[in-house]
UniProtKB/TrEMBL annotation:
Keyword Hydrolase attributed: yes
One GO molecular-function entry: identical protein binding
Protein's UniProt name: Glucosamine-6-phosphate deaminase
InterPro entries hit by this protein: Glc/Gal-6P_isomerase, Glucosamine6P_isomerase, NagB/RpiA_transferase-like
Source organism (scientific name): Enterocloster clostridioformis
Length: 246
């Protein structure tokens, strides 16, 4: 297990540290190969990291961005749309070379095929991968499929995942949360050269504790990250609280 754990006092401090680490890896990739490829996650846990990341000194015009997941049949105009989220919080704030989005509207299978082709043109240098309250990575809810070689697939969201979306304020109730989403698959995530996870707040404490203390198992999908050759985990006092209890 090659994991670096950084514990901060606040989500803001965590975001600054995670953003600095992401920026360094992107700059290293640009120095080595002239460009970098980045995967970004979304959700309330990423607010501070993205806000700090756009302020980092990076040659953004040499970076292609991809993202992890999106709801099926949810309009981009909806507050919960991850395309909307990334365009507002990241893409509109830095001059990227290109940005490629998961599109859950229209011909979804065609959208997935086109995105997969673009994604696999070259390796991803940095994956910024969150951890859900149920231990999911992207929308790979437990028990996650660790074996598929597909880049993206349509999945049915479990109840706890849908409740998380309500708790974060994206939907009024569980019934309003789409039942299906498109997610980047586990093997594709693990193929990133470097993975950075930013996971603040007490609602993530159980998932963080399970990820670190339990064996690698699909019932806690994030445990697979422990097998990655370069995984950096950024947590705050709240999300780390169960690790240091007693």
């Amino acid at each position: 297990m090659n994991i670096t754990v950084n514990v901060s006092s606040t989500p803001q401090e965590l975001g600054s540290h995670a953003a600095a680490a992401i920026a360094k890896l992107l700059n290293d990739a640009i120095k080595a190969q002239g460009y970098a490829r980045l995967v970004l996650s979304t959700g309330a846990s990423q607010f501070e990291t993205l806000d700090a990341l756009v302020k980092e000194q990076v040659e953004w015009e040499k970076i292609e961005m991809f993202h992890l997941d999106e709801y099926v049949a949810l309009p981009e105009s909806h507050i919960a749309s991850f395309r909307k989220y990334l365009k507002e919080r990241f893409v509109s704030r830095v001059p990227l070379k290109a940005a490629y989005f998961v599109n859950g509207e229209g011909n979804v299978e065609k959208n997935i095929a086109e995105l997969t082709t673009k994604l696999r043109e070259n390796p991803i240098d940095v994956g910024v991968i969150g951890i859900g309250e149920n231990g999911h990575i992207a929308f790979n809810d437990p028990p996650a499929d660790f074996e598929t070689n597909t880049a993206y697939k349509i999945v049915t969201l479990d109840e706890r995942c849908r409740k998380q979306q309500v708790g974060e304020g994206w939907f009024e109730n569980v019934g309003a949360v789409p039942k299906q989403a498109i997610t980047m698959c586990v093997k594709q995530i693990m193929s990133c050269r470097h993975i950075i996870t930013a996971a603040p707040h007490d609602v993530k404490a159980e998932a963080i504790c399970n990820t670190i203390t339990k064996p690698v198992d699909p019932t806690v999908p994030a445990t697979i990250l422990k097998t990655h050759p370069d995984w950096q985990l950024f947590i705050d006092d709240a999300s780390a609280s169960r690790l240091f209890a007693n």
